[in-house]
Amino acid sequence: MNLATNYLGLELANPIVPSASPMTLSVDSLRQLEAAGAAAVVLPSLFEEQIEHEAMAVHAALNFGTDMSAESTDGYFPEMDDYNTGAGDYLDRLRTAKEALSIPVIASLNGSSAGGWTLYARIIEEAGADALELNIYLIAADAERGSAQVEEEYLHLVEAVRKSVSIPLSVKVGPYFSSTANMANRLVSAGADGLVLFNRFYQPDIDLDTLTVVPNLVLSTSDEMRLVLRWMALLHGRIDASLAATTGVHSAEDVLKLILAGADVTMMGSALLKYGPELITTILSEMIDWLTAREYMSLDQARGSLSQESSPDPSAFERSNYMHALVEYASKR
Amino acid sequence: MKPAQIVVDGNEAAARVAHSLSEVIAIYPITPASPMGELADAWSQRSDPNIWGTIPEVVEMQSEGGAAGAIHGALQAGALTTTFTASQGLLLMLPNMYKIAGELTPCVIHVAARTLATHALSIFGDHSDVMSARQTGFAMLCSESVQESQDLSLISHAVTLRTRVPFLHFFDGFRTSHEVMKIEGLAPETITGLVDPKLIADHRERALNPNRPVLRGTAQNPDVFFQAREAANLYHDAVPDAVELAFNEFAELTGRRYELFQYFGAPDAERVVVLMGSGAGAARQATEALQARGEKVGLLVVHLYRPFSINHFTDALPDTVTSIAVLDRTKEPGAVGEPLYQDVVAALSEAGRSNINVIGGRYGLSGKEFTPPMVMSVFAEAAAAEPRRHFTVGITDDVSHLSLTVDEPWQEPGDVIQAVFFGLGADGTVGANKNSVKIIGTHTDQYAQGHFVYDSKKSGAVTVSHLRFSPRPIESTYLINHANFVACHQFGFLEKVDMLDLADEGASFLLNSQYGPDEIWDQLPAKVQGQIISKNLRLFVVDGNAVAKEAGLGGRINTVLQTCFFALADIIPKDEAIAAIKESIESAYGKRGEVVLQRNYAAVDGALAALHEVTIPAAVDSTIEMRLPVPVQAPDFVQRVTGMIIGGKGDLLPVSAMPLDGTFPTATAKWEKRSIAPEIPIWDPDICIDCGRCAMACPHAAIRIKVYDPTELEAAPDSFQTKAWKSKEYAGKNLTVQVAPLDCTGCGVCVDVCPAHSKEVVKHKSINMEPKLDHVDVEETNFDFFLEIPEIDRTEVRIGSIAGSQLLEPLFEYSGACSGCGETPYLKLLSQMFGDRILIANATGCSSIYGGNLPTTPYSQNADGRGPAWSNSLFEDNAEFGLGMRLAIEGHERTARRLVSEMAPQLGGIAAELLDADQSDEAGLKKQRERVQTLLTQLKEIDDPLARELETTAEYLVRMGVWIVGGDGWAYDIGFGGLDHVMALGRNVNILVLDTEVYSNTGGQASKATPRAAVAKFAAGGKATGKKDLGMMAQSYGNVYVAQVAMGANMNQVVKAFSEAEAHDGTSVIIAYSPCIAHGIDMETMMSHQKDATQSGYWPLFRYDPAAEALEKPALRLDSRKPTIPFKDFAAKEGRFAMLSRTNPERASFLVEQAQADIDNRWQLYEQMVDVHRTAVFEDQEDE
User: Fold this and answer.
1) What is the C-alpha to C-alpha distance for residues A67 and B1034, in angstroms, rounded to an integer?
2) Which residue, of A112, A283, B422, B1070, has the fewest CB within 10 Å?
3) Domain over B664-798 is classified CATH 3.40.190.10
């Protein structure tokens, strides 16, 4: 069965791409993912904010206590050769991954300053990434800034990065736009070769024992795939870019549904963390079984076959659940 | 090729040479020599080789005695070996030095000469330490400057190989060791040109080696020892010529010519001053000035002090000399004169020039300023008809009247730029200034000098940087007092420090100010306004904090102020200066990350736009007054002496103002209202739960609680906060939690530990940090009233509880420790629980500095005048020192008891009561104190010599305690032998180890208490070995009470441990986890870190009570639970561990894994130990 797919211009053997997660951190687990059948990998994000925070923390630690008394003039830590701040560590991992793998390696970047996005995008390209995924999340908490301003910020950023690199560029965003379809289009116009839908954020939680706020990330479930499914179906065929579905992709069924809706690739994180790289092998074989049983010639045949454009019931993707339920209730009467 | 000019301090200059010419370096930290060892260690860590391509092995020992032993061994086995030390450290090396010299072994010891502790410790420079080594047989070569400390370092290493006589190379501590100077570096061929490989081969040939075995270190008898001692004479005799030869060779190679005795001045001089060390610069300037007036004067600077070559000495002296003044930077009480004086007198006598009149004086003890006018007064004395044979210079001696009057004015040439900067310890001012010296030194032809002065506080300390830039080499080895540039980096200093006193006419004054050029004038104290107007100063302001914040550097203002200095000083064209600053930022911070560079560059770029000149009004119109150093109600001594020292005028105090024997009053810290906190804690009584944790945790005794009868509130100010005490313990009484607003350092630890928070707003606790300016006036009034509320009767308090202990008056308050110090809460608790009846023996270290450094003393007294009596002996002997106190107390008590018994018939019933008194609790102690009072009253009426004797010892009938206090450097390393012996003796002393797991006071060197995986100086790659388990070692004696505590983890356990330790009739040891800034943590959360330390099993809590054995209970009791969080989670939160994860992640994870294994193993062992009974196996329980 031909599962080949094109994502961001990269020819992939199948549509399973492990997303940025601890699973894609070490070269050992990357090798396991490749062996299990992953068609490409997305490395964990380079976080500009983290890099800056670490460098400033090292700076502060080395400055702390310097010249505080005549007996302690040089601070409390010895000066060392290398603090491994900056992107060096990330680039090393990228290069190692490139050397170790024959599948495409997609780097991921989360910047925090305009200069940072383009700077790090460039050095990621130089380090040999096959493509770059911009992992953008801005919590628009400032009541003074309207949605248009926030959207402009996204677009500027994509434009700036597009100008500074020539490798394929995908943009990973969350679902929280007033007009997701419009935004998707504008992101593509700004230079995105593909969209990765959707980001999942760290969400705050409250510890009732300590009365503290504890942000963390919980693993996704298959249910969360539905939101992605809707947007794959709505966007397929309507924008000139690759579509990657991410969040809630846990099984062959999930993958198939998303492909039918129109995804070019499906990205997996939580499920791999939960079940291990072998899950990819299982999914691929179950997909083949399903496609074979229904006499598909290739996965491409199925792609987008239930997108909104191709669906017998296009309005199904636009209905809200409430409406749906009400109508059903009424018709049963 | 001419070697590059470099900008270094004396320590680095000497250490570079030493490292390049050594194979084995054994070190131990001691101020001011520590940087030499640290640098050597750092160079070896980064694989810098010596000149033969081998990386010198640098090993940190447990003491200087250990270091000396190690170098002796390394020498015996044929290594080229060196060490670095000072002061008491050198004294600990003396025994080995005799051996090393006696065995004719080439070796160099570099000494940053420092005062020996006598009536007081001092870290500053004089020659009392090196003068103690002059009989060892070491040659002694003295450097007077940073340049020389490099050059003569090389001469020492070269000549020791040529002569086989070991060398002590020394230069003045701080003045030279820490002075940053532009000097000419050494070309590698100069080094190799002076060191003959053949001599190294010879040294190796003499090594102990089983292939050609010999024996050294014999014991000899009267028949031959003497002859053998004389056998090496010719080697010592050869040293002066060998040094001269090396000096000549060196001059050939470098053009810098040195003499054994370097003469300067008139060829036909009649009067000559002889001295050695850094004072030479000032002396040359004075000589030159007097010569210019036509006086026939000269100066003889001693380089080679031992062997003292009479020939070279007299050859250097003009024939015309009729009188000599010898200046010694040491004191030898009881001697005919100080050592150099005696040498000169003897040399002249032997040379047949006894016609020269010689006088001798002391100068510069403990780094006392030594200036050209002082030298002029010495020359004047030498010219007097009847000069004083012995004198002092630099002080006013109104007791023995030995001091010379110094009245010559002194002004440096106008083309010398003299800049003085006032900064706050750790605000980066000093670092930036060192940097400026480097920039100007390397970018211009100007000579550059930086010297830095610190006050003795560890929090809120004032640093003063003295920078000179001159077209000529700088010889001014004294502080600037005619500055043409003055900078104040901290606005708060304006009212506290008289900075403009040293501003010259027309100088520029740069002020870091939140007020702009139009507002600033109204914010200046009247005195400052007056100085600006009368001296015609130009005033500039920059809001450094705003620029730094804008650049993303938080409050780090150093780069901003440095840029402004360059703009105003105009030594380098502006653009060039800015490029140079950025270049130096790149070289200093490049390794730390791009963002660090970018933000600092931004600060540089933002600085100039924010710099404004202020138009100076014609008249003084301010009503702001400078703050008095101490309030007017302070006691006489504090007014006369302490206040002068606080006000920076200690140099003006005459001899008569000083105690004779180093005895100082306690309870003086409260008069030094430092007011250094930007935010202070404010109490919200509505949600307070009366727990006392804030007071317990406060490192500065600035949060206090009192319980009192509501009637006390009648005179309370309206603002005074109070609440009813909740529990029945003090039913009907009121509670107040009060901040001492001017004494608080603003660390925030109290807020971190407060468990009570508002139901409505979780972040609002029962105690909250708020801007001081909003509260200070009200809180000052409240605190004054609070102090008037009577202290609680100690007999009414359950002392062994958290809140109970905190109701007791702290007798340790407002120390100069770091803000948020982890050690001081334990000392405060100790002072509360037992402070009115204890002696404290304090090992040298942080606790002796914040406990005993002038000007003020945190140990205080209660209303009866009782409080801790404190003393510091040395670093290494503290356990023994405390034991001695115990033995004395017990002796007095025995005497008193014997006398009471003997006088029982005269004394009546009270005798038995006194002897049988139960003093196990406060009530018992109170009763016994009353009995002793009664006894003393009775004795007055008894006319009997026994009564007189009993009067002197009666107070020892009240139980006293001895607490032996020190840090881990003392307890685990240098003092462990003594600690071990004291534990073995089992006498009734209490040992409190304030374990910061690192040498905190000397700047963070690793000790045996440093844990595996932590980064520290001398453990730059992360400490590879585990922490020594001192608690288990102490337990092995079986009869020693041992507790391991961490206040932040379990306050109750700490209080219990202190109670039990004090009650234990034998030796007790408390090992107290004490977070330190060396841990790389935010000190505000230091108590929370302790919680993590315990929960991870990194710092398990336990008490080992031998008394429990008697009750057939296990002696060891674990007070913390099985570890619940992995070590790596704890480690990730502390810079000392996290730093290694950054620099070497693989090694970090390897060491962290091992550290986890340490924890697991130790926990398992402790759990097993809990079940172990030490009770003997009875005969009927035979082995199966």
Assistant:
1) 37
2) A112
3) no
